[in-house]
């Protein structure tokens, strides 16, 4: 199975407060139920609190992002205790030592760990646009552009949650392929397993990446790096009901000669019910998996699309 990964081998970086560690400015934490009690059963976390790591105490005065002449610094509200450089240097250090990570969950709105929409203030203390990026988070994401990253707040959205976990498992699969020694055959096999996943996210990328792998003139390393960059970018695009329904119909085509008329009608009805929002994605997928038992199709059975992560996470029940 695509998702058969030992939790000890699948490591995700995470803001320490999200695991319940009392590292926030007021000695509190901000535990994420999903990260701790659901995803935590399938991965191993490596936690970080950049503020504590650079020597700030617990408890400590609050810090914020302050914009002065287009320069953003991180300091106390009165501008004292500037820790911008220390945070950036620590971020670079962590980024260089965590290439083994398969994902990262940041604490939302934090001046150090927020992925986006961090509140920025003027030197006089006035709130400006909430368009900042946490200094630490920025270093991690800049150094590891392929790394699936999300924030605890956004993970409350079922679609974003499912998308993040799917990207984590796809990236881990790729990391395993690279670690085993990349070959043209392995690259082609990997792509064949993610064809329907790609189709459900971005049909243009699905076609372009297939053409890329068919190019005999590109060196393997160039082809591989271009491919994985394209795949991870495509997977960031949220899959819609329309795209999923189209993908499911393509898969159904593989059974066209084997399915009985009533079976074919049932699958068509469930795909259409999903497209209309009447049932969750797990319904037509379960039916397809059922038919695979009766009419084995090795190519379809190996598709990451059918089981991109452990079924126990139940991420396809909500949309």
TrEMBL record:
Domain of life: Bacteria
InterPro entries: 2-thiour_desulf, DUF1722, UCP037004
Domain DUF1722: 195-310
Designated name of the protein: DUF523 and DUF1722 domain-containing protein
